[in-house]
Fold each of these.
Amino acid sequence: MKRPSFSFLSRVSAPFRSAYESLPMPVRRWTVPALLVIFFIIALLSPSFLNLYWQQVLIYVGINIILTASLNLVNGYMGEFSVGHAGFMAVGAYVASILTVWIFPRWGLGAYIPFLFPVALLVGGLAAGLTGLVIAFPSFRTRGDYLAIVTLAWNMIVKSVLENIDAIGGPRGFMGMQKLTSVAWVYVWVVITIYLLRNLVYSNYGRGTLSIREDEIASSLVSVDTRKVKITVFVVAALFAGIAGGLFAHIIQFINPRSFSILKSTDVLVMVYLGGIGSLGGSILGATVYTVLLELLRPLQVWRWVVGPLMLVLLMIFRPYGMMGMREWRFLIPWEELPETVTALRERVRRKRETLTAPAPVGGSSD
Amino acid sequence: MPVLQIRGLTHYFGGLRAVHDFNLDLEPGELIGIIGPNGAGKTTIFNLITGVHRPTEGEIFFNGHNLVGKRPEQIVSLGIARTFQTIRLFRNLSVLDNVRIAHFARTRYRLMTAMFRLPKYMHEEAEVRERALELLDLMGLSEQANWVASSLPYGLQRRLEIARALATEPRLLLLDEPAAGMNPGEIADLMELIQWIRRRFDLTIILIEHQMRVVMGICERIKVLDFGETIAEGTPAEIQNNPRVIEAYLGEEAIV
């Protein structure tokens, strides 16, 4: 498949890139961490200059980035088709909410809830990851559309199970959460998520994941334990969806099973394919563009819900790779993986090469 | 003691008998050829050895390990690597990544170690990167380390596929029609390359070929298949004059 060239984005980013490249090396290495800290301070101060509405939009952008990046792992990097991401989000949302509303106060920790919020989110994420494990085990025994069907069923099962447990409100939903999610918190979780997922992507597991998408048989024949990689990646994706669910529950302070329907899963799918498969930068871009777009389309009222599915169809036809398909922003690539680092290392290896080398490469331009 | 022992290997695809009663004893360091017309069952034998298919009947022993019922990645880890008749690179990944993926089974770090970039991960990754680049350098591919695999010219794609197989550190290398689609000049280069990697990596090699003249030059021993049956076995000279082989290749009328 041919990769899309994306001249618009590179043109926009060109001045920034050349400014960055003119910086001396030590400054360059600390640019990204420094910017992250500055943005964190801005996020902390944001309640003083942003009204509640825009704070909420920013929070949704962040939550959607976490959802999109994690689903991209399965649908983009691995090339499988999971359509039930909202199901894992629901597990995380309910578990985290039950912790902050019932469990922590019962243990006499009511006063510490704002500090225990990350713990609640993590437990919610782990619970979602655990359900992911249960789904992944049977689903990955066979290949292809099977996963799509199982995850679709999973999403529906989660919804109807939640509707039928009266203790957590059933169809009426669950409430009583404090408004714990702030712009700063979401920002921190987005940074953590992207950082951890980036590290996964550039590790053995990430390369294994990509090789499964490229050619699963060839991948197992060069020693990749494809079943282990598939299950691991799926569980990681579910875990982060759970964390996003927890954050979501503590901003709207009211969750009901309908918040986690197939529609929500479809939104995440649109963001993945809009931003671009196999790209964390794409996920950030896709989630941001789509979330803000839906906000701007509010005047359309009910009709704006047509936008998502319609975009999904059009994207699949005209731009299956999305905005940043298979490309990555430079700052999201670990320094040791940058092309110039590889080139430098290659030269070092060449200098100490053995005297015995292979016969000259086969003619350069055969067809 | 033979590296690879195959006894009574038989495989059916539904009602179609693809391989019947195939036997092989392979001594360390040997380079043998399997030839035969299209559909003779050559690739099926490779698929049975590497665990892609499970044989209907028969036994395969590699250095004392029974391979039947093992998964492909387990068999690779025991030391058997292969290439494919139609090139099956990870086309959208870089040349370096193609080779690094083949280090999968030998990296020991766990998921959490990688996600938090702990020293063990950094250390092992640096080693993998360096070894992969060394191999690419050795195979004359290091200039292209950052290229996307699909952008390599055909001959270099073949070479990369061999490099990727070598990266798993095999004892036995299975080459499935490596000369397919090459012109005579490229074939000569390839034959030279095969003999070079055999010495350099101390390999035992099975070479499948469709064209007889390719294997004649470099194989010590040749087995000829036709419709899943072994119809002849021997040195290149013996094979060349075997009437059954000529029949299989040229048709019956030619020998009358």
Amino acid sequence: MTRMAATRDGYGQALLDLADNEKVVVLEADLGKSTKSLHFRKAHPERTVSCGIGEQNMLLVGAGMAASGYIPFASTFAIFTERAFEQMRNGIARPNLAVHLCGSHGGTHTGTDGSSAQSIEDLAVFRTLPNVVVMHPCDDVSTRALTMQLADTTSPSYMRTARNKTPVLYDEAAPGLIQIGKGIELQTGNDVAIIACGVLVSESLKAAEMLAAEGINASVVDMHTLKPLDGGLVDALVARCGALVTAEDHNVIGGLGSAVAEHIVANVFAPLEMVGVPDRFGESGQADEMLEIMSLSAPHIAAAARRAIGRK
Amino acid sequence: MSTSIEEIEEIARKCRVEIVKMVYRAQAGHPGGSLSEIDLLAALYSTRMKVRPDEPKWADRDRFILSKGHASPGMYAILAEMGFISHEDLKSYRVLGGVCQGHVDMKWCPGVDFSAGSLGMGLSFGMGCALAARLDKSERRAFVMIGDGEMQEGSVWEAAMAAAHHELGNLKVILDRNRIQNDDFCEEQMRMFDIPAKWRAFGWNVKEIDGHNMAEIMEGLDFLEAEENSNGPSILIAHTIKGGGISYMENNPAFHGAAPNDDQFKQAMIELGEVEA
């Protein structure tokens, strides 16, 4: 039986793991129970800063602490990170201060709170900022590993985590496999490559199973880092498969699909089908229902793969 | 304190000359807010700031955050007076590749602790510096200068609330209350009502002074540093004159962000005692 877990739990665990580093501080905006920074707060209240419901202030408090030698991890809902976009832009990215922002509850998968809480543009907006690393891991193991690595980076970052549980895809005992900026080929195929992030990685694996039943061998890649994009891996997939699909619980505009498209048009080109939220807002619904009505679930990814192959 | 009132006033006068020269050379920039803040900056830097001009990144330095970062000529002028940068560097103001970027930038200019230019951000950054100092068990302080028009940004009040909540006695704000913002007088753009009462209500220690009277400025800085005010953040509300020191710029919204022409430049140099009439 596949273990199920939420990526936000991996984030919370990583903060605890990082606590031995006395420079690590945690910033909250009244959502620590949800983003899972609360475990750090309980264990290390002296290194946790409550900023109240004030995301703009939180990010710049982080900037001031980063400029003073600390390693701030700030979190809130993905949607509310967007309120502080200009603080991220002018106060963090521009002076290149290593503040690490985590937006939990990203995407339509977050479910029944409805469209106001379903960020579908966070990856796009933060991807436009120079210096900022942008990630959207697919399970708690990789989220934990990637968050741990952030403490050693010198660039600011944005990481989206998800509210709901998804299948855990990585073995705990795989050190070195999960690295910022390196996509991971979970399954190797020659006919089409499905490049996915976040909650759609497991859906892509299901899609690959469906395709396999039809004799189509699909490669499935966990592209947990959208920026910097692992262009070398994309080039290799183009060379081997000749057709690409991207899959993300995010607007088709500006996210992983756009990142891959930007890369292949400037390098070696292949047909690309982009599975993502079709430029519309969400609504209240269960996570699986949202993936269905947004055309993001495994059958939609499989259909996109067939289209991509048909365009070879 | 070794620096006399007269000496600080002379530093401020020299800074005013450089401010006008910078904006005149660039034919762009923000003279009004630079002139209103400069007496405060001269006093703060020459008598209070624990900094090392030859070691600008010294970890335990006091921080100064010019949140109204467009008033950069004033900052550059005092940094040159203090020896962080040279007077030659001042010629790079708004010039490609220059250390004196249009708005103060920590990545470009030694002695600048915050990349400003977007209003409403510096107080939050200063709060982060103050929290870090507390965690480090350091005596260093974070001084932040904000503008009055800037207080219209909501994020200022997020920071005001949070800094008081965290009882940041090492966070010291100076408000350059020059009464003018980009388009017009502040009271025309957005009425301010009782500014001292607002800050008191947010939990701050508050004092008002004349921001061009050097004796009052020194009393105001004493207030910011006073032990009895270390229980939480403090703000010095300095009533100033936008364009202060240059007759035709004073209280003139047109010189928020405009450069003097040739005749105006000559007149400014005469008024500042640089050249004979």
